[in-house]
Amino acid sequence: MKIPTVTGVKRAAITALDEKNSEAAVIPVAEVVVVVVVVVVVVVVVVVVVVVVVVVIVISVAVVVVIVKLVVAVVVVVVVVVVVVVVVVVVVVIVIVVVVEVVVVTAVEVMMAEVVVVHTVIIGAAAAVVVDAVLVLIV
């Protein structure tokens, strides 16, 4: 059996410390690698989530813009149709009033001249009422 000498004990202690230090040095490197990997994964996930959120917002805004454009187009078409219908109705009413007025005036002129004024006033009032009604519909 060997009796350990001071030098041998020192040497064994130094060797043990070297092994411990080398293990201690390896563990932090492994921990740093794990931390770096976790940080990289978290950053990648955050970037992906931000990109997805931005894409969803952009798509949502685009969809809203398309919907608003469609609604505006429909409203414009409806307004144009209403205006065209109102103009046609007004023109038809004016034509009817003019034709009736000419016929009535001609018939009344044959009968008596005073009645022409009365009929013209009545027809003008009727035309004004129709035009007012159409304007109320437009507004």
Any key phrases for this structure?
0% strand, 139 residues, 2 helices, mainly alpha
Structure description:
It is a single chain. With 139 residues, the chain is mainly alpha-helical. The chain has one domain (6-138). Helix content is 94%, strand content 0%. The protein has 2 helices and no strands. The chain has helices at residues 6-111, 114-138. Helix 1 packs antiparallel against helix 2. The radius of gyration is 49 Å and the shape is rod-shaped. 0% of the residues are buried. The mean pLDDT is 73.
Largest sheet: none
What is the global morphology? rod-shaped
Structural class: mainly alpha
Low-confidence stretches: none
Report helical residue fraction.
over 70%
Q: DSSP helix count?
A: 2
How many separate structural domains? 1
Mean pLDDT across every amino acid position:
73
Query: Hey, roughly how much beta strand do the residues contain?
Result: under 5%
Order of helices and strands: HH
Between the first and last Cα atoms, what is the distance in angstroms?
Answer: 118 Å
Q: Specify Rg, calculated over alpha carbons.
A: 49 Å
Q: Write down how many β-strands occur, each being a DSSP E stretch of 2 or more residues.
A: 0
Organism: Elysia marginata
Keywords: Membrane, Transmembrane, Transmembrane helix
Protein name: ABC transmembrane type-1 domain-containing protein
Transmembrane segments: 32-65, 72-104, 116-138
